[in-house]
Amino acid sequence: MPYLLNLCYLLLLALVSPWLVLQALRTGKYRSGWGEKILGRVPVRESDAPCVWLHAVSLGEVSLIASLVSEIERRHPDWDILISTTTLTGHALAKTRYAEHTVFYCPLDFTWAVRRAIERVRPSMLLLVELELWPNLIAAAQRQGAKVAVVNGRLSDRSFRGYQRAGRLARHVLSQVDLVTAQNRQYADRFVQLGAPAEAVHVVGSLKFDGAETNRANPATVRLRELAGFDPGDVVFLAGSTQEPEERLAIKAYRELSALHARLRLVIVPRHPERFEEVARLLAASDLVWERRSMWNDEGGNPLVRVLLVDRVGELAAWWGTAAIAYVGGSMGERQGQNMIEPAAYGAAVSFGPKTRNFRDVVAALLEADASVVVHDGEELTEFVRRCLFEPSFAEALGARARDVIASHLGATSRTVDLLDALAHTGSSPASPHRTAA
Fold first, then answer.
1. Residues carrying an active site annotation
2. Weakest-pLDDT range from 108-122, 406-420, 424-438
3. Right CATH number for 2-10+33-205+411-426 from 3.40.50.300, 3.40.50.11720, 3.40.1710.10, 3.30.70.270?
């Protein structure tokens, strides 16, 4: 089976290699880390301390694990923590956010690459964030004696159907996982249906809630507010994690409403760095006076400029703390939503488009509490911003309810680390009221 997988991976790599080369030339992606990815030449761990290897694929997962890393550090300051990623942006953020830990690209699931990586890292525990079920990596970790856990586990409808088609392979892989901490009961039941041992699957909630900052006076947000020259009377409308055509819709809303509200400011944070230039061209073609975040020094920008393009990776979480009115992007196209927890935790008046399948539980909780608004097009987005501007009591109440929803879902990090501690000390996860039924 491992050699058949190697063959399949090689064929797939050969098929996509022209596209990878094109992307590398056009965007700079996929240029680095190939020694780690193909050959498993990850950094050698010198210490003999217990070691947790966390694999977080991309930008979202890297941000997600912040509370988990902090809690492991607090409880076990003597443990080594290593973090692997797959994407360029995820790697860049991890190097910045977890600078005190070793960060590297995860090897692709070739037997030789994962075997060498495991030998060099020597993990006590391999933590796969959300759903990274790589058969050869998991098998290599177990042969080395490491425990394997899926943390913040989720199985979307699409992923569940895909793993069902994988049949015996999915069952075999999941049978080797020692622990699954699932975000909700539905995901937990799906893991069990696919082959995870029922006694290993626990419902703990989502780490996404615990990782959200709630204090607008946090140092990162305060610094950005000062750099931007935001005054107390300014009303910041922030469109974050945006994709085409969401920037255009936000600009249209701002242009219409800024004539009616002189203190309105617009901040746009595209989801993908490769679109920074595209959005810059869009703003350049408008009649607005705007600035790029990347052009600022530590003294800040021009406070008279009312429109800002944030073309820096890893700052969005802090920028949300400046926003009174929020639109969470990736929700009017095929992306199926981005993280709306962060602006909700700050108490912003939160809106998003109708396509939010990736965050359906969060969306359901917010909508049930009347703590967010779904906007279906540019006209509805403009109307939402208008109402927030001219009915401040509406915006304040919406934000307060959103903050309460987030507060009611806290605690997944502590429950997750409780289970990881039990796994580390006893070799199995304990019986728990959060465990799913068989």
1. 61
2. 424-438
3. 3.40.50.11720
Is the full-model pTM beyond 0.90? Answer: no
Task: Using alpha carbons, select from 209, 145, 150, 158 the residue that is nearest to residue 174.
Answer: 150
Whole-angstrom distance, CA of residue 434 vs CA of residue 198: 12
% residues pLDDT > 90 (the chain)? 77
Looking at CATH, the fold of the domain delimited by 219-407 is given as Rossmann fold (3.40.50)
Q: Are 429 and 147 in contact (CB under 8 A)?
A: no
pLDDT band per the 50, 70, 90 thresholds, residue 27: low
Buried b (16+ CB within 10 A) or exposed e, 212-251: bbeebeeeebeebbebbebeeebbbbbbbbbbeebbebbb
DSSP summary character for residue 76: -
Coarse DSSP helix, strand, coil percentages of the chain, rounded to the nearest 5 percent = 50, 15, 35
CA distance 340 to 405: 12
What is the distance between the alpha carbons of residues 114 and 134, in angstroms, rounded to a whole number? 10
What CA–CA distance (Å, rounded) separates 357 from 335? 9
The dihedral of CA 216, 219, 220, 225: what is its sign?
A: positive
